[in-house]
Design brief:
globular, 2 domains, 27 strands, FG-GAP repeat protein, Integrin_alpha_N, 5-stranded antiparallel β-sheet, Tip, FG-GAP, signal, mainly beta, 4-stranded antiparallel β-sheet
Amino acid sequence: MDVVVKKVPVQFGRVCAFGDFNGDRNTDILVQRGTNLTVLLQDNELLNVLEEGVFKNSTTFRVGDAAVECSLGDFNGDTKLDILVSMKKRADYYHSVWISTVLRDSFVEHKLPVLSSQALAIDVDGNGWHDVLGFYPNGSMYCITFSRDGSPAIDCNYLFPGFIRVDPYPGVPHLFADFTGDHLAEIVFMDSTVTGSGKFLTPRMWGRFKNGWRETPTVISQMPGEHQFVGAPMAADFDADGLIELLVPICRKADCKQVTEFANWQYTRGWSTNAFDLQNFNILSDEDSLMLFRVGDFSLDGYPDLVATLVEKQSLGQIKESLFSQLPISFFFLLRVH
């Protein structure tokens, strides 16, 4: 994998999500600054002039005093982005959805149950609205739909008649995308397999059928090699062939500060690997998360970019000490060369 590095002007905070919050087709950033989440809108006019990302503050709201993870979706069908917020306290994950309103781009909170891992924002019932899917500590499923005002509505567990349980791989969110090219999105649960050598990531794909969702165990084969240290997988059409790939960062050690290669799965060709080296940089991620990279089109060329928070190796300790303060973060876009 060839890499080109583009630096974006310094921002303050930690990245929680990327998405188009104002409908201008530019990728905006949702960052956590202390106890608040802030939407940073990308300035389209300055982008065209300067040829680099420029962001300005938009909405800010308080979410709590711990680090949070975010997933974006439209839960109430108003075509505006809402936010699923997950906050880990000890071994539990506290969830809430923040629904966008027409009043000055503000958000209203609706609390959800405590789960064992970060929940997923997906359209389970096929009505075009996002639902929330997650797991309780015993491995059973939590699935909920939402009403027009954004409040929780009815359970959707019945749409998974063959589901038994999942042991979620720690620090890795599940994925929802059309991996098979049939114009229907699949769910990939990030399950765990335990052997004598340790715990390994085991992606399990579920597809939508007439009677609900069903596992398709032969679609994703076992990842080649016993890679005990991995980062959170990502989904995007990285090679522009029309099919979405599953990209898994392979780490040198358990802390995943260094990624040595990517395992790349595609529906028609299976697994392949790409070497990767950031040389003098370490990847900065949250203590309880293996989300090393995020995907967004920041160069506006129609191709997905991998975005990581990088720090020079000699300065890593200093930055970690001030993680929840007004921390300057440099964003580097890692672009596939076409």
